[in-house]
Amino acid sequence: MATDLVQSMLSTLGLTDTQSEVVFPLEMTALRALLAKVDGLNAARQRLSADIAEKSELAKGLLFQAEDRRELQEFAGMQESYQNLFNLNRDLLASYSMRCSNQTELVQSVKAINLYIQRAARLRARPVQASIIKGCREAFKANDIPRLISIIRTGRPGKTAIV
Description:
Layout: H1 2-13, H2 25-71, H3 75-122, H4 126-141, H5 145-154
Helix pairs in contact: 2-3, 3-4, 4-5
């Protein structure tokens, strides 16, 4: 790997401070696709969470409705309310399952992005690796994709270059 080669060269030559710009077009394209995927997964997670919250409120209302009908001895209406509650509960479980799948895929994608960040740091000398990792993670957390790509490319967390 390129990172192993760079680290070997740096240690052999005794270099502790280097400036470099890396250009791996295929890797950057894959990273951008992964970042877009994470953005889509986050949006889907928010929609699913809102859907689950809405269905939970509906379930609570149906339960109260069924109990009210039981108290009023409207058994046909009570049975209908419980059937609606059963169907809603099934939908709620399906939504929760989708949300769990989405969360698993999101975690895997974020781990893959973290690998890109780690590799970018290993392309530089040890003293600046921690600042590169910190800058990349801050940019990712802030959803500042141009800054993230710039840090990976230049190794300078403080500056944003044109990507």
